[in-house]
Amino acid sequence: MATKKTFNFLIDGGKATGGPPIGPSLGPLGVNILQVVNTINEKTKEFEGMRVPVKVIVDPDTKEFEVEVGVPSTTALIVKELKLQKGATNVKTEKVGDLSIEGVIKIAKIRFPYSLAKNLKSCIKEVVGTCLSMGVTVDGKDPKVVEKEIDAGVYDEIIRKAEEE
């Protein structure tokens, strides 16, 4: 009995094809590539327009497979939320968008299970830190100011409500 083989891909959500990298990787195992591609597209269609990590686990003996879909990066989620093309090229002088604190919390709740943060408040600070590195303001303020406000407890009520949902 052979062990299961695992393949990791970074796929455009809902747009996987049988071409590289999926086809050449899985083809030698005799797996139905079209079925794998259709399963990936079905599971990633909600992340359309974003690069999504996908893990395909194949049993070479039975030709059965499982598809596990990860969550896009925080940067990809911010880009999608603000409908940006990319972040700022010079974050000190250029601001490319403004994300509301509710948007930050929404992204933090998506990323929290995959984050190393101990609680939602820490995960929110991670998202705000990513905003800083992308040239995105939060509620019209510099992300460093928002981090200090989070530490000071300004957003505790909103965060508590988000944790209860």
Radius of gyration: 19 Å
Spatial gap, N to C terminus? 46 Å
Strand content: 15-25%
- Helical content class: 40-55%
> Quick check: average pLDDT?
90
Strand order within the widest beta sheet: 1-2-3
**Approximate shape:** elongated
Number of helices: 7
The beta-strand count equals 5
Structural class by sheet pairing and helices: alpha+beta
Q: Extract low-pLDDT stretches.
A: none
Query: Element order, helices and strands?
Result: EHHEEHEHHEHH
Reported for the largest beta sheet, the result is: 3 strands, antiparallel
Structure commentary:
This protein has 165 residues and is of the alpha+beta class. The protein contains 7 helices and 5 strands. It has helices spanning 22-26, 33-44, 74-82, 101-111, 120-134, 143-152, 156-164; strands at residues 5-12, 51-59, 64-69, 97-99, 136-138. β2 and β3 form a beta hairpin. It is elongated and about 55 Å long.
What is the strand and helix layout of this fold?
Elements: E1 5-12, H1 22-26, H2 33-44, E2 51-59, E3 64-69, H3 74-82, E4 97-99, H4 101-111, H5 120-134, E5 136-138, H6 143-152, H7 156-164
